[in-house]
Design goal:
alpha/beta
Length: 265
């Protein structure tokens, strides 16, 4: 059994950890509302983009677009979105587990943890803005048109609820032929020209949307992880306090016994 001094030190240490988890949990909770607002706005934007692209690609003329080229070699690039920090449960680990299914792909990491994983310059996911997404989308679209790769995907974490999120991959390029048509929508000067013009904005919009969704998932995962850590810390303090009281009582009993035995002599 540990002595009372060691138990006091452990209780103090666990209590300090408990205060830290509470603080981190409060920070995560304060970010959840803003993260969710950004995510829902980005979702609406992406829905509009996807609808427009589906209408465009449903036209036979758009089969001539370089963005609908189907490569034979399947040289793949994948944008990987992870978090800037840890202590978020399995959030980052689940993303990297999905990455392991695409061993032949070239990865473009976003988020400090992803950049560390793939030994790339650090790019923050929390402070990633539309201009950054637009610049990357322009480079990727140009490379795709120049036949430098055949397929582009984004690995992100889909937000389901505060308690649930799921890593997924979304294939962005090449565009698939749309199955929707609306005779009331007229594109000028023609479908093909408009599709080639909006390709970069589409890729940038999808990227920024999935970054917002991943960030919302990360914040929720961190809050849940801190809540769980806080509960575990409280339980440890209760167990250690009980052990401390037993040790203290045992020490007192032993001292009384020694005093009584000494007085009998």
């Amino acid at each position: 059994m540990a002595n009372t001094k060691e138990l006091r030190v452990r209780i103090k240490s666990v209590n300090s950890t408990l205060q830290l988890t509470k603080a981190m949990g409060l920070v995560a909770s304060s970010k959840i509302r803003r993260a969710n607002e950004g995510m829902y706005k980005a979702r609406e934007y992406v829905k509009s983009l996807e609808k427009s692209v589906s209408l465009l690609t449903s036209s036979p003329d758009c089969l001539k677009s370089p963005y609908m080229r189907q490569g034979e070699t399947q040289r793949t690039k994948i944008i990987v979105i992870a978090g800037d920090r840890g202590l978020a449960g399995g959030y980052n680990a689940n993303v990297f587990r999905l990455c392991a299914q695409f061993l032949d792909a070239e990865f473009i990491p976003i988020g400090k943890r992803a950049c560390e994983r793939f030994s790339k310059p650090v790019v923050s996911s929390e402070k990633y803005y539309f201009k950054d997404a637009n610049d990357l989308a322009e480079k990727l679209c140009n490379d795709f048109v120049e036949n430098k790769f055949d397929r582009l995907g984004i690995i992100y974490t889909k937000y389901i609820s505060v308690m649930s999120a799921e890593p997924q991959i979304k294939w962005i390029l090449p565009f698939e032929k749309g199955d929707s048509s609306d005779a009331t929508v007229v594109f000028e000067p023609d479908h093909l020209t408009v599709l080639n013009s909006v390709a970069r904005e589409y890729v940038a919009g999808m990227l920024i949307s999935y970054i917002r969704e991943s960030f919302a998932s990360e914040v929720a995962a961190r809050r849940m992880a801190m809540d769980s850590a806080g509960k575990n810390a409280k339980q440890m303090i209760e167990d250690l306090s009980l052990e401390y009281n037993r040790a203290r009582q045992g020490a007192i009993t032993q001292e009384i016994t020694e005093i009584v035995a000494g007085s009998g002599n």
